Amino acid sequence: MPRSAPSFLNHRTAHLAVAVLLPLAVALGTAAPATAAPPATAAPAGASSTAAGKGTPGPITHPDSDHLGSTLGGRSAAGAAARPLVAEPLAPGAGRESTGAPAAALPAGAKPLGIDVAAYEPNVDWAATAAAGASFAYIKATEGTTYTSPTFSSQYNGSAAAGFIRGAYHFALPDRSSGKSQADFFVDHGGTWTADGKTLPPLLDIEYNPYGATCFGLSASAMVAWIQDFGTEVKTRTGRYPSLYTTTDWWRTCTGNSAAVSSYPLFLANYTGTAAPAPNGWTGQSIWQYADAGVFPGDQDVFNGTAADLQAFALGTGPAAPPAPTALSWPLTQQGDSGTRVTVLQHLLNAHGASLTADGQFGPGTRSAVISYQNSAGLGADGVVGPATWQSLTNTVKQGSSGSAVKAAQVGLNAHGASLSVDGQFGSGTRSAAQSYQVAQGLPADGAVLKPTWLALVAS
What we know:
By secondary structure, the chain is an alpha/beta fold. The chain has helices spanning 126-131, 152-161, 179-188, 220-238, 248-255, 307-315, 340-351, 364-376, 387-393, 404-415, 428-441, 451-459; strands at residues 113-117, 134-143, 147-148, 165-171, 203-205, 243-246, 266-269, 287-291, 299-303. It has two domains: 63-86 and 97-315, Glycosidases (TIM Barrel, Alpha-Beta Barrel); 340-459, PGBD-like superfamily/PGBD (Muramoyl-pentapeptide Carboxypeptidase, domain 1, Orthogonal Bundle).
């Protein structure tokens, strides 16, 4: 299993064919911070060697493909374990709710939604993304001390022009140069901060090494020292300590679960339906990256607070992030069980090729379908639906989707107070019911049904 994300995650292949350095726009209040051309590659000052016997780090071969979460388990593979959902279109002329484009603004009480992008996602329609409900963005600026993103300027300025609160991030390569060196390169090439309420704090992306050893050949103490070196220099240069993007497993593995920098805001990646658990020292995250695809371009992010809290976070005047809510657990479901959860399960199995009657009874036929799916998905084929099987079965459905997985979502939403026709068509009514449920549960209110919403629907 991958370290902090399940094996069913889809890989988003970088599709930037040619990297072209875009000229930087200069527009008061919205322009990307001025940058210079990247320096010629040279032996980095203060670079650390990799672990004993590993030698000097190899060349940086795919920086356009390195982005927030690009090294999480599942993204390095071309496919996903789960088979694709089978679309089940309506018969011609059948009356159903509208499946047009989603409505715009988020409902009252919804937590702000955002995205993060880099050169792998070069053409973002920022106005359409804002209209769909996103309000903040992080954009890759740099990597190591030799790479600047060719799309940073257009993405940074484009998001600002569409009204996004936005910020820049740096993809860390701690085995190649000191934290201070990379911080300086980052700040010099876009990683600045202004107390204007529109600029998020600089972000350090520290995750699994795409070019070698998971922990870059550094000991836990050396890794913590590197992060502190980076953070101190960013604070000196910009007036803000950086936020940290990471996973709990990477943090435990590569820093020894240190709490030394827990005063830095946490941007946590976890695609299992919950943000918990947080690394040592943090009681909750400021931002949660909850999926690598969904309603918006790029990764799907949610801020842990209100819209006013987000602006205060940008200004540097907000309180510490509130504690994360108690984590839900994927339920254990097996032969002999009955009820709505089993009905949801049966529809999900049908979406992956089974032909079950969704009667809410977990009998031998349902168990056989579970075993067949588990075998096809490379899971332990025991006929019991636990966390791994639930997570593999629950693909994303959103407005415009159709089929048995939509029926599963509609059944689950009806069990929590909605009054939907279970017709397998994800139209505006299903979207509205999903958002109402999401707001009530404190979930990302994107109006789609992704892992966080599936988890809440089947766990309660």
